[in-house]
Design goal:
alpha+beta; OB fold (Dihydrolipoamide Acetyltransferase, E2P); globular
Length: 473
């Protein structure tokens, strides 16, 4: 129950920190190598100071600087960037970022935004959206170190501790996004006073606290991007990595529907940092109301509220969902968007057959939890696209309701490893008169779309449509 307990403690801490404190509250500025201008006295309740405009990007200073372009948006205080090697603003030095695979995993200095990639905290998604909106529309972006060298954080994820500057389109000056996150109330302090721009950053933080913005707002302030119900709001990544801790508990998760069959839909959500999808099956049952069925469409992104249950002693699923357009939104399925790409991410079959995936979670204090899963189990219930498989053996079920379903053993390279494709009973025509048989697959080469599933302890790909096979010459 470790993760679940941590989630509840985190949520309680957010609520407690949201209560404004005025008496005895002070800002400790500390000693800074270049603190910037004195921000002056704390503003009154009606006056708002743009502290971001009180600092400027000095290209002649001794700090490291690199013009960059966004690569992946992770959350409010973490972004991956590609260096602009032919920049006219900064000089690119070969090898500077070899330790982080040639690109820059930026962890923003002086700020700590609420979580939005594991357990979801209030204002976490809003902070992430704010950061993305500023960088996606920026004319130019420059990252800066806090001193004369590039500095990594204390985690194993090879993140550089950086100031992030962006130039809005149509403007001539760069704005400091770290300080802006503090100023707008999207972040709490993280060694703020002791950083290069600590004096101004601390003043921005004090103003946000005094004005009770976002993370400093009263507990009953609504964050439009945060689920306020009793269920535990989590990502599918968090759920997949800690399933046992959520069994029989009410959770709130979001995902895009990729497939529907056997009274279930399959949902998944892309994790930008790892570059993979995480998913789960959502069981709606035989007696689902027509209102619920009307919104369960492939390509729709939905927020589900339900319980994690175990079927057949080993299959985890989300169940107990419902939908009523006039019902309680804290207990209801909610449509977020429609027409999304239903996935089928191209995936290396060798990873599914024997690879692993290393996943790191970090709490508010910076403590890490490292989880290693078999790659196939990490991406269970997601839609994948496998290429260049050769069927070497076919087992056909010959009795029961599954009579005619097949298990295809397939090779994919010269390593001798195999992967299994499990089909439903398939037909070649819409009238279901031309049954697909062993002869259609044996010794044939093909690409295939399917869902990653586990059966009797073995990972396999479930394919429920014949047109998901692309036969090769």
């Amino acid at each position: 129950m470790k993760r679940f307990g941590k989630s509840l403690v985190s949520m309680l801490c957010v609520a407690m920190l949201a209560i404004p404190v005025f008496a005895g509250c002070s800002v400790e500025y500390g000693n800074n190598p270049n603190p910037g201008p004195d921000p002056g006295p704390d503003p009154g309740p009606s006056e708002t100071v743009d502290y971001v405009s009180q600092v400027s990007l000095d290209f002649s200073s001794e700090t490291k600087k690199q013009e960059v372009e966004p690569r992946l948006f992770i959350d409010g205080d973490t972004t991956h960037f590609d260096p602009v090697k032919n920049s006219t603003l900064t000089t690119y030095h070969e090898g500077d970022f070899d330790e982080s695979d040639g690109y820059i995993k930026a962890r923003y200095l002086a700020v700590n935004t609420p979580e939005s990639t594991g357990t979801i905290e209030k204002w976490g998604k809003s902070a992430s959206n704010f950061t993305r909106s500023k960088l996606e529309t920026a004319e130019q972006i420059v990252v800066e170190s806090d001193d004369t060298k590039w500095n990594f954080d204390s985690t194993a994820s090879k993140r550089l501790m950086l100031w992030v500057w962006y130039k809005p389109k149509g403007e001539d000056t760069f704005r400091n996004l770290n300080i802006e996150l503090l100023q707008e109330g999207y972040a709490r302090a993280s060694s703020t006073a002791s950083t290069r721009y600590g004096t101004v950053a601390s003043a921005a933080l004090a103003q946000a606290r005094a004005k009770q913005l976002k993370v400093f707002s009263p507990e009953d302030t609504v964050d439009p991007n945060f689920y306020e119900g009793d269920a535990i709001p989590i990502t599918l990544k968090e759920l997949r990595c800690h399933l046992d801790e959520y069994v029989d508990k009410s959770v709130c998760v979001e995902g895009v529907i990729t497939a529907e069959f056997s009274q279930s839909v399959y949902i998944e959500d892309f994790d930008a940092e790892l570059g993979v999808n995480f998913g789960i099956s959502v069981y709606y049952g035989y007696n689902a109301r027509s209102q619920l069925l009307s919104i369960l469409k492939v390509g729709s992104r939905l927020r589900f509220v339900g319980s994690i249950t175990i079927f057949n002693d080993s299959i985890y699923q989300l169940s107990g969902i419902d939908y009523d357009p006039y019902g309680d939104p804290t207990k209801n399925t909610t449509v977020i968007s429609e027409g999304n790409d239903p996935g089928f991410a191209e995936t290396d079959p060798a990873k599914i057959a024997g690879g692993t995936l290393d996943i790191t979670f970090e709490d508010e204090e910076g403590a890490e939890e490292n989880v290693t899963l078999d790659y196939g189990r990490a991406i269970l219930n997601t839609a994948v696209y496998l290429k260049n498989l050769t069927c070497t053996n076919v087992y056909t079920t010959d009795s029961g309701n599954s009579a005619g379903a097949m298990t295809l053993t397939c090779t994919f390279d010269n390593s001798g490893k195999t992967i299994q494709i499990r089909t439903e009973v398939l037909y070649k025509d819409k009238e279901n008169t031309q049954l697909v048989t062993k002869a259609d697959f044996l010794n044939k080469k093909f690409n295939v779309k399917g869902l990653v599933e586990e059966f009797s302890g073995q990972i396999q790909i479930k394919c429920h449509r014949f047109d998901y096979f692309e036969f090769l010459a």
